[in-house]
Amino acid sequence: MRASQEDFESAMNQVKLLKKDPGNEVKLRLYALYKQATEGPCNMPKPGVFDFINKAKWDAWNALGSLPKETARQNYVDLVSSLTSSSESSTQVKPGADRGQQEYENLVVTSEDGITKIMFNRPTRKNAISTQMYQEIMLALKAASKDDSTITVVTGNGDYYCSGNDLANFTDIPPGGVEEKAKQSAIMLRDFVGTFIDFPKPLVAVVNGPAVGISVTILGLFDAVYASDRATFHTPFSHLGLSPEGCASYTFPKIMGPAKSCFSFQATEMLIFGKKLTAGEACAQGLVTEVFPDSTFQKEVWTRLKAYSKLPPNSMRISKQVIRNMEKEKLHAVNAEESSVLQERWLSDECINATMNFLSKKAKL
Ligand SMILES: CCCCCCCCCC/C=C\CC(=O)SCCNC(=O)CCNC(=O)[C@H](O)C(C)(C)COP(=O)(O)OP(=O)(O)OC[C@H]1O[C@@H](n2cnc3c(N)ncnc32)[C@H](O)[C@@H]1OP(=O)(O)O
Asked: What residues does the ACB domain cover (predicted)?
Protein backbone atom coordinates (compact mmCIF):
# COMPACT_ATOMS: atom_id res chain seq x y z
CA MET A 1 0.00 0.00 0.00
CA ARG A 2 1.24 3.46 -0.90
CA ALA A 3 1.26 6.35 1.56
CA SER A 4 -1.85 8.46 0.97
CA GLN A 5 -2.03 12.27 1.05
CA GLU A 6 -3.55 11.87 4.53
CA ASP A 7 -0.59 9.76 5.70
CA PHE A 8 1.70 12.43 4.31
CA GLU A 9 -0.08 15.27 6.09
CA SER A 10 -0.17 13.32 9.31
CA ALA A 11 3.59 12.71 9.00
CA MET A 12 4.14 16.46 8.50
CA ASN A 13 2.30 17.11 11.75
CA GLN A 14 4.28 14.43 13.59
CA VAL A 15 7.52 16.11 12.55
CA LYS A 16 6.40 19.26 14.40
CA LEU A 17 5.83 17.16 17.53
CA LEU A 18 9.21 15.42 17.60
CA LYS A 19 10.63 15.66 21.12
CA LYS A 20 14.22 15.42 20.00
CA ASP A 21 15.98 17.44 17.28
CA PRO A 22 16.69 14.80 14.59
CA GLY A 23 19.85 16.60 13.46
CA ASN A 24 20.72 18.50 10.30
CA GLU A 25 21.20 15.47 8.00
CA VAL A 26 17.72 14.18 8.76
CA LYS A 27 16.16 17.64 8.55
CA LEU A 28 17.72 18.12 5.11
CA ARG A 29 16.43 14.72 4.06
CA LEU A 30 12.92 15.60 5.29
CA TYR A 31 13.08 18.92 3.44
CA ALA A 32 14.23 17.23 0.22
CA LEU A 33 11.57 14.50 0.36
CA TYR A 34 8.87 17.08 1.13
CA LYS A 35 9.87 19.22 -1.86
CA GLN A 36 10.14 16.18 -4.14
CA ALA A 37 6.77 14.87 -2.98
CA THR A 38 5.02 18.20 -3.49
CA GLU A 39 6.89 19.80 -6.43
CA GLY A 40 8.77 16.95 -8.15
CA PRO A 41 12.45 17.16 -9.20
CA CYS A 42 14.48 20.16 -8.02
CA ASN A 43 13.42 23.22 -10.00
CA MET A 44 15.34 25.97 -8.18
CA PRO A 45 18.48 27.62 -9.54
CA LYS A 46 21.60 26.40 -7.73
CA PRO A 47 22.48 28.85 -4.87
CA GLY A 48 25.96 30.37 -4.72
CA VAL A 49 28.72 28.51 -2.85
CA PHE A 50 28.67 30.95 0.07
CA ASP A 51 24.92 30.65 0.57
CA PHE A 52 25.62 27.58 2.76
CA ILE A 53 22.15 26.80 4.07
CA ASN A 54 20.28 27.14 0.79
CA LYS A 55 23.10 25.29 -1.02
CA ALA A 56 22.76 22.37 1.42
CA LYS A 57 18.99 22.33 0.91
CA TRP A 58 19.36 22.52 -2.86
CA ASP A 59 21.96 19.71 -2.83
CA ALA A 60 19.68 17.47 -0.77
CA TRP A 61 16.66 18.07 -3.03
CA ASN A 62 18.68 17.83 -6.24
CA ALA A 63 20.21 14.54 -5.05
CA LEU A 64 16.77 12.95 -5.30
CA GLY A 65 17.03 13.25 -9.09
CA SER A 66 13.90 12.00 -10.81
CA LEU A 67 12.56 10.06 -7.81
CA PRO A 68 8.77 9.85 -8.42
CA LYS A 69 6.53 12.08 -6.25
CA GLU A 70 4.68 9.06 -4.80
CA THR A 71 7.95 7.40 -3.78
CA ALA A 72 9.17 10.60 -2.15
CA ARG A 73 5.88 10.84 -0.25
CA GLN A 74 6.22 7.22 0.89
CA ASN A 75 9.88 7.73 1.89
CA TYR A 76 8.91 10.86 3.83
CA VAL A 77 6.21 8.95 5.73
CA ASP A 78 8.64 6.04 6.37
CA LEU A 79 11.36 8.39 7.59
CA VAL A 80 9.00 10.19 9.98
CA SER A 81 7.70 6.86 11.20
CA SER A 82 11.26 5.69 11.88
CA LEU A 83 11.91 8.95 13.78
CA THR A 84 8.81 8.71 15.91
CA SER A 85 9.27 5.02 16.64
CA SER A 86 12.99 5.52 17.29
CA SER A 87 12.16 8.05 19.99
CA GLU A 88 9.64 5.59 21.47
CA SER A 89 10.44 1.88 21.00
CA SER A 90 13.50 1.48 18.82
CA THR A 91 17.13 2.19 19.41
CA GLN A 92 19.05 4.60 17.25
CA VAL A 93 22.30 2.70 17.37
CA LYS A 94 25.08 4.98 18.42
CA PRO A 95 28.28 3.06 17.85
CA GLY A 96 30.10 6.11 19.14
CA ALA A 97 28.77 5.14 22.53
CA ASP A 98 30.52 1.76 22.18
CA ARG A 99 33.64 3.34 20.83
CA GLY A 100 33.51 6.28 23.20
CA GLN A 101 33.42 8.50 20.13
CA GLN A 102 30.97 10.28 17.84
CA GLU A 103 28.16 8.78 15.73
CA TYR A 104 28.69 7.52 12.18
CA GLU A 105 29.16 10.37 9.76
CA ASN A 106 28.23 8.52 6.60
CA LEU A 107 25.66 6.00 7.78
CA VAL A 108 22.34 5.99 9.57
CA VAL A 109 22.09 2.82 11.66
CA THR A 110 18.83 1.93 13.37
CA SER A 111 17.60 -1.18 15.14
CA GLU A 112 13.90 -1.95 15.28
CA ASP A 113 11.56 -4.97 15.04
CA GLY A 114 14.52 -7.38 15.14
CA ILE A 115 16.15 -5.69 12.13
CA THR A 116 19.32 -3.63 12.13
CA LYS A 117 19.29 -1.27 9.17
CA ILE A 118 22.57 0.15 7.88
CA MET A 119 21.77 2.99 5.51
CA PHE A 120 24.45 4.62 3.31
CA ASN A 121 24.00 8.31 3.96
CA ARG A 122 25.93 10.48 1.50
CA PRO A 123 23.05 11.18 -0.88
CA THR A 124 24.67 14.28 -2.39
CA ARG A 125 27.60 12.06 -3.53
CA LYS A 126 25.20 9.29 -4.63
CA ASN A 127 26.38 7.38 -1.52
CA ALA A 128 29.92 6.93 -2.89
CA ILE A 129 32.03 5.07 -0.32
CA SER A 130 34.81 7.22 1.11
CA THR A 131 37.73 5.72 3.03
CA GLN A 132 36.06 6.70 6.30
CA MET A 133 32.79 5.17 5.15
CA TYR A 134 34.49 1.79 4.44
CA GLN A 135 35.63 1.84 8.09
CA GLU A 136 32.18 2.84 9.34
CA ILE A 137 30.48 0.05 7.36
CA MET A 138 32.89 -2.50 8.86
CA LEU A 139 32.20 -1.17 12.37
CA ALA A 140 28.44 -1.16 11.82
CA LEU A 141 28.49 -4.75 10.53
CA LYS A 142 30.60 -5.90 13.44
CA ALA A 143 28.20 -4.22 15.89
CA ALA A 144 25.19 -5.73 14.06
CA SER A 145 26.72 -9.21 14.21
CA LYS A 146 26.67 -8.94 18.01
CA ASP A 147 23.45 -7.02 18.67
CA ASP A 148 19.97 -8.45 19.44
CA SER A 149 18.69 -8.19 15.91
CA THR A 150 17.82 -11.20 13.78
CA ILE A 151 18.41 -9.77 10.30
CA THR A 152 20.76 -7.05 9.02
CA VAL A 153 19.75 -4.87 6.11
CA VAL A 154 21.93 -2.62 3.95
CA THR A 155 20.25 0.16 1.95
CA GLY A 156 20.85 3.66 0.56
CA ASN A 157 19.47 7.11 1.31
CA GLY A 158 18.32 9.19 -1.67
CA ASP A 159 17.89 8.26 -5.31
CA TYR A 160 20.97 5.98 -5.48
CA TYR A 161 21.75 2.81 -3.60
CA CYS A 162 25.47 3.52 -3.96
CA SER A 163 27.81 4.82 -6.69
CA GLY A 164 30.66 2.57 -5.56
CA ASN A 165 34.11 3.56 -4.47
CA ASP A 166 34.49 7.33 -3.97
CA LEU A 167 36.91 8.19 -6.74
CA ALA A 168 38.29 10.99 -4.57
CA ASN A 169 39.83 8.22 -2.41
CA PHE A 170 42.58 8.15 -5.03
CA THR A 171 43.62 11.73 -4.27
CA ASP A 172 44.33 11.31 -0.57
CA ILE A 173 47.98 10.25 -0.84
CA PRO A 174 49.90 9.61 2.44
CA PRO A 175 53.55 10.65 3.02
CA GLY A 176 54.69 7.17 1.85
CA GLY A 177 53.43 8.04 -1.65
CA VAL A 178 51.06 6.34 -4.03
CA GLU A 179 52.57 2.85 -3.60
CA GLU A 180 51.94 3.06 0.14
CA LYS A 181 48.37 4.26 -0.54
CA ALA A 182 47.77 1.30 -2.86
CA LYS A 183 49.17 -1.09 -0.24
CA GLN A 184 46.99 0.34 2.56
CA SER A 185 43.95 0.34 0.27
CA ALA A 186 44.43 -3.33 -0.64
CA ILE A 187 44.49 -4.21 3.08
CA MET A 188 41.39 -2.11 3.70
CA LEU A 189 39.57 -3.66 0.74
CA ARG A 190 40.45 -7.19 1.87
CA ASP A 191 39.20 -6.45 5.41
CA PHE A 192 36.05 -4.77 4.07
CA VAL A 193 35.06 -7.68 1.83
CA GLY A 194 36.14 -10.16 4.54
CA THR A 195 33.61 -8.61 6.92
CA PHE A 196 30.83 -9.51 4.46
CA ILE A 197 32.19 -13.04 3.91
CA ASP A 198 32.22 -13.71 7.67
CA PHE A 199 28.96 -11.96 8.55
CA PRO A 200 27.06 -14.52 10.68
CA LYS A 201 23.41 -13.42 10.39
CA PRO A 202 21.08 -13.19 7.40
CA LEU A 203 22.22 -10.16 5.40
CA VAL A 204 19.76 -8.49 3.04
CA ALA A 205 20.33 -5.70 0.51
CA VAL A 206 17.41 -3.35 -0.13
CA VAL A 207 18.57 -1.78 -3.39
CA ASN A 208 16.55 1.42 -3.61
CA GLY A 209 18.17 2.80 -6.79
CA PRO A 210 21.18 2.44 -9.10
CA ALA A 211 24.16 0.49 -7.76
CA VAL A 212 27.70 0.80 -9.09
CA GLY A 213 31.08 -0.91 -8.62
CA ILE A 214 31.84 -2.44 -5.26
CA SER A 215 28.25 -1.99 -4.07
CA VAL A 216 27.26 -4.42 -6.84
CA THR A 217 30.06 -6.94 -6.52
CA ILE A 218 29.50 -7.58 -2.80
CA LEU A 219 25.84 -8.43 -3.48
CA GLY A 220 27.06 -11.96 -4.24
CA LEU A 221 27.87 -12.23 -0.51
CA PHE A 222 24.34 -11.28 0.65
CA ASP A 223 21.58 -13.76 1.51
CA ALA A 224 18.81 -11.90 -0.32
CA VAL A 225 18.78 -8.88 -2.63
CA TYR A 226 15.51 -6.98 -3.10
CA ALA A 227 15.52 -4.28 -5.77
CA SER A 228 13.30 -1.42 -6.83
CA ASP A 229 12.57 -1.47 -10.56
CA ARG A 230 14.51 1.86 -10.70
CA ALA A 231 17.71 0.06 -9.68
CA THR A 232 20.46 -0.74 -12.16
CA PHE A 233 23.60 -2.81 -11.63
CA HIS A 234 26.84 -1.56 -13.18
CA THR A 235 30.46 -2.67 -12.76
CA PRO A 236 32.46 -0.42 -15.10
CA PHE A 237 35.86 -1.83 -14.06
CA SER A 238 37.48 -1.80 -17.50
CA HIS A 239 36.28 1.79 -18.11
CA LEU A 240 38.20 2.72 -14.95
CA GLY A 241 41.30 0.62 -15.66
CA LEU A 242 40.31 -1.68 -12.77
CA SER A 243 39.45 -5.35 -12.22
CA PRO A 244 36.71 -7.06 -10.16
CA GLU A 245 36.63 -7.13 -6.36
CA GLY A 246 34.11 -8.22 -3.70
CA CYS A 247 34.66 -11.89 -4.74
CA ALA A 248 32.63 -11.19 -7.91
CA SER A 249 35.24 -12.94 -10.08
CA TYR A 250 34.10 -16.12 -8.29
CA THR A 251 30.50 -15.44 -7.20
CA PHE A 252 29.16 -13.86 -10.42
CA PRO A 253 30.05 -16.72 -12.79
CA LYS A 254 28.69 -19.10 -10.14
CA ILE A 255 25.44 -17.15 -9.71
CA MET A 256 24.89 -16.39 -13.39
CA GLY A 257 26.44 -19.44 -15.02
CA PRO A 258 24.36 -22.14 -16.66
CA ALA A 259 24.19 -25.25 -14.51
CA LYS A 260 26.53 -27.37 -16.64
CA SER A 261 29.22 -24.77 -17.23
CA CYS A 262 31.94 -23.34 -15.00
CA PHE A 263 31.87 -20.16 -17.04
CA SER A 264 29.25 -17.51 -17.63
CA PHE A 265 29.19 -15.05 -20.51
CA GLN A 266 26.66 -12.93 -18.61
CA ALA A 267 29.15 -12.50 -15.79
CA THR A 268 32.01 -11.65 -18.13
CA GLU A 269 29.87 -9.17 -20.07
CA MET A 270 29.24 -7.38 -16.76
CA LEU A 271 32.70 -7.68 -15.23
CA ILE A 272 34.89 -7.25 -18.34
CA PHE A 273 32.75 -5.16 -20.68
CA GLY A 274 30.88 -3.18 -18.02
CA LYS A 275 27.37 -4.04 -19.26
CA LYS A 276 24.81 -2.31 -17.08
CA LEU A 277 21.88 -4.55 -16.05
CA THR A 278 18.36 -3.41 -15.27
CA ALA A 279 16.81 -4.79 -12.09
CA GLY A 280 14.77 -7.24 -14.17
CA GLU A 281 17.90 -8.46 -15.99
CA ALA A 282 19.82 -8.81 -12.73
CA CYS A 283 16.92 -10.84 -11.32
CA ALA A 284 16.85 -13.08 -14.40
CA GLN A 285 20.60 -13.65 -13.89
CA GLY A 286 20.11 -14.58 -10.22
CA LEU A 287 21.95 -11.58 -8.76
CA VAL A 288 18.67 -10.10 -7.47
CA THR A 289 16.15 -12.15 -5.51
CA GLU A 290 13.04 -10.14 -6.42
CA VAL A 291 12.14 -6.85 -8.10
CA PHE A 292 9.34 -4.58 -6.85
CA PRO A 293 7.65 -1.55 -8.44
CA ASP A 294 9.33 1.53 -7.02
CA SER A 295 5.99 2.93 -5.84
CA THR A 296 5.42 0.00 -3.45
CA PHE A 297 9.02 -1.08 -2.92
CA GLN A 298 9.60 0.16 0.64
CA LYS A 299 6.24 -0.95 1.92
CA GLU A 300 6.40 -4.47 0.43
CA VAL A 301 10.01 -5.15 1.31
CA TRP A 302 9.79 -3.97 4.91
CA THR A 303 6.56 -5.90 5.49
CA ARG A 304 8.31 -9.04 4.30
CA LEU A 305 11.47 -8.37 6.31
CA LYS A 306 9.47 -7.76 9.48
CA ALA A 307 7.81 -11.17 9.00
CA TYR A 308 11.19 -12.87 8.41
CA SER A 309 12.69 -11.21 11.47
CA LYS A 310 10.22 -13.10 13.66
CA LEU A 311 11.62 -16.49 12.60
CA PRO A 312 13.83 -18.23 15.19
CA PRO A 313 17.18 -16.38 15.05
CA ASN A 314 19.44 -19.30 15.95
CA SER A 315 17.92 -21.50 13.30
CA MET A 316 18.45 -18.80 10.65
CA ARG A 317 22.04 -18.24 11.73
CA ILE A 318 22.81 -21.95 11.68
CA SER A 319 21.17 -22.40 8.28
CA LYS A 320 23.35 -19.60 6.96
CA GLN A 321 26.44 -21.31 8.36
CA VAL A 322 25.49 -24.62 6.76
CA ILE A 323 24.87 -22.94 3.41
CA ARG A 324 27.95 -20.69 3.42
CA ASN A 325 30.69 -22.30 5.50
CA MET A 326 31.94 -24.68 2.81
CA GLU A 327 32.64 -21.66 0.59
CA LYS A 328 34.29 -19.39 3.15
CA GLU A 329 37.86 -20.50 2.67
CA LYS A 330 37.56 -20.20 -1.09
CA LEU A 331 35.96 -16.75 -0.79
CA HIS A 332 38.77 -15.48 1.46
CA ALA A 333 41.35 -16.77 -1.04
CA VAL A 334 39.54 -15.07 -3.94
CA ASN A 335 39.28 -11.86 -1.91
CA ALA A 336 43.01 -11.85 -1.18
CA GLU A 337 43.85 -12.45 -4.85
CA GLU A 338 41.47 -9.74 -6.16
CA SER A 339 42.81 -7.20 -3.63
CA SER A 340 46.39 -7.94 -4.58
CA VAL A 341 45.64 -7.60 -8.32
CA LEU A 342 43.91 -4.26 -7.65
CA GLN A 343 46.90 -3.00 -5.68
CA GLU A 344 48.80 -3.12 -9.01
CA ARG A 345 45.88 -1.81 -11.06
CA TRP A 346 45.54 1.35 -8.95
CA LEU A 347 49.09 2.31 -9.98
CA SER A 348 48.44 1.76 -13.70
CA ASP A 349 48.18 4.60 -16.24
CA GLU A 350 44.78 3.25 -17.31
CA CYS A 351 43.37 3.64 -13.80
CA ILE A 352 45.07 6.96 -13.01
CA ASN A 353 43.88 8.53 -16.31
CA ALA A 354 40.29 7.30 -15.91
CA THR A 355 40.12 8.58 -12.32
CA MET A 356 41.59 11.97 -13.26
CA ASN A 357 39.08 12.26 -16.13
CA PHE A 358 36.21 11.72 -13.71
CA LEU A 359 37.57 14.06 -11.05
CA SER A 360 38.27 16.83 -13.57
CA LYS A 361 34.64 16.36 -14.77
CA LYS A 362 35.73 15.18 -18.22
CA ALA A 363 33.97 11.82 -17.92
CA LYS A 364 31.21 10.02 -16.12
CA LEU A 365 30.25 6.39 -16.47
C1 LIG B 1 45.58 4.13 -4.93
C2 LIG B 1 44.41 4.38 -4.05
C3 LIG B 1 43.22 3.50 -4.20
C4 LIG B 1 42.08 3.77 -3.22
C5 LIG B 1 40.96 2.77 -3.39
C6 LIG B 1 40.19 2.44 -2.16
C7 LIG B 1 39.54 1.06 -2.20
C8 LIG B 1 38.65 0.82 -3.37
C9 LIG B 1 38.14 -0.55 -3.54
C10 LIG B 1 37.12 -0.72 -4.66
C11 LIG B 1 37.53 -0.24 -5.97
C12 LIG B 1 36.69 0.09 -7.00
C13 LIG B 1 35.32 -0.41 -7.17
C14 LIG B 1 34.32 0.58 -7.68
O15 LIG B 1 33.42 0.88 -6.95
S16 LIG B 1 34.47 1.17 -9.28
C17 LIG B 1 33.08 2.28 -9.48
C18 LIG B 1 33.39 3.68 -9.03
N19 LIG B 1 32.25 4.55 -9.28
C20 LIG B 1 32.11 5.28 -10.38
O21 LIG B 1 32.89 5.24 -11.31
C22 LIG B 1 30.91 6.20 -10.43
C23 LIG B 1 31.30 7.61 -10.75
N24 LIG B 1 30.10 8.46 -10.77
C25 LIG B 1 29.39 8.71 -11.93
O26 LIG B 1 29.70 8.25 -13.00
C27 LIG B 1 28.17 9.56 -11.78
O28 LIG B 1 28.37 10.42 -10.66
C29 LIG B 1 26.87 8.73 -11.54
C30 LIG B 1 27.03 7.74 -10.40
C31 LIG B 1 26.52 7.99 -12.85
C32 LIG B 1 25.70 9.67 -11.21
O33 LIG B 1 25.57 10.66 -12.22
P34 LIG B 1 24.55 11.88 -12.00
O35 LIG B 1 24.68 12.77 -13.18
O36 LIG B 1 23.20 11.36 -11.68
O37 LIG B 1 25.06 12.59 -10.66
P38 LIG B 1 26.41 13.43 -10.44
O39 LIG B 1 26.12 14.88 -10.61
O40 LIG B 1 27.50 12.85 -11.27
O41 LIG B 1 26.72 13.08 -8.91
C42 LIG B 1 26.48 13.98 -7.82
C43 LIG B 1 27.81 14.29 -7.16
O44 LIG B 1 28.34 13.08 -6.61
C45 LIG B 1 29.66 12.86 -7.09
N46 LIG B 1 29.89 11.42 -7.21
C47 LIG B 1 29.04 10.48 -7.62
N48 LIG B 1 29.60 9.29 -7.60
C49 LIG B 1 30.86 9.44 -7.17
C50 LIG B 1 31.96 8.54 -6.94
N51 LIG B 1 31.86 7.23 -7.13
N52 LIG B 1 33.10 9.07 -6.48
C53 LIG B 1 33.24 10.40 -6.26
N54 LIG B 1 32.23 11.32 -6.45
C55 LIG B 1 31.06 10.82 -6.91
C56 LIG B 1 29.67 13.55 -8.46
O57 LIG B 1 30.99 13.84 -8.85
C58 LIG B 1 28.84 14.79 -8.17
O59 LIG B 1 29.67 15.72 -7.51
P60 LIG B 1 29.55 17.32 -7.78
O61 LIG B 1 28.18 17.70 -7.29
O62 LIG B 1 29.69 17.48 -9.28
O63 LIG B 1 30.66 17.92 -7.00
From this structure: 4-89
Is there an atom of ligand 1 within 6 Å of 168 CB? yes
Q: How far apart are CA 26 and CA 75, in angstroms?
A: 12
Looking at the structure, tell me whether residues 302 and 196 fall in a common domain.
Answer: yes
Which CATH number characterizes residue 74's domain? 1.20.80.10
Q: Can you give the CATH number for the domain in which 270 is found? A: 3.90.226.10
Strands 224-228 and 203-207: parallel
pTM of the model: 0.79
User: Does the C-beta of 253 come closer than 6 Å to ligand 1?
Assistant: no
CB atoms inside a 10 Å sphere around CB 89: 9
In angstroms, the CA 187 to CA 166 distance is: 17
Interface ipTM above 0.85: yes
Question: Would residue 330 count as lying in a domain?
Answer: yes
Tens of pLDDT along the chain (365 residues)? Answer: 578 888 888 888 888 777 777 877 788 889 999 999 999 999 999 888 767 788 888 988 999 999 899 989 988 888 888 787 655 444 455 444 443 334 799 999 999 999 999 999 999 999 999 999 999 999 999 999 999 999 999 999 999 999 999 999 988 888 889 999 999 999 999 999 999 999 999 999 999 999 999 999 999 999 999 999 999 999 999 999 999 999 999 999 999 986 556 667 889 999 999 999 999 999 999 999 999 999 999 999 999 999 999 999 999 999 999 999 999 999 999 999 999 999 999 999 999 999 999 998 877 77
Mutation test residue for ligand 1: of 55, 61, 126, the one with most atoms within 8 Å of CB: 126
